[in-house]
Amino acid sequence: MKxxxxxxxxxxxxxxxxxxxxxxxxxxxxxxxPLFNYNGQVFAQQHLQLExxxxxxxxAKKFIEEFSKKHPESEKFLTSKKFQKIAPxxxxxxxxxxxxxxxxxxxx
Length: 108
Known about the structure:
Layout: H1 2-15, H2 21-36, H3 40-44, H4 49-70, H5 75-78, H6 81-96
């Protein structure tokens, strides 16, 4: 089990090596906040760091699945090429400010 989790973490880090949490925060505010209707802090603190990493693995499949159910109006955007392009940055933003990170984003 530990090897599986470690492998998933390594895969997640490799996937997002060029990602940037600052860009992720900007993308969240521009694209996601209007769809979800809550600020970046509320968004990021919905899950723990490991959970966010798992949500964004495999082209963010689990993220798309969960948030399409919570916010059906977001499904079109979440399944778009634009979302796939910004997903690594959103992942870094969510992980950096996750419930167990001890950090709070400065976004309204």
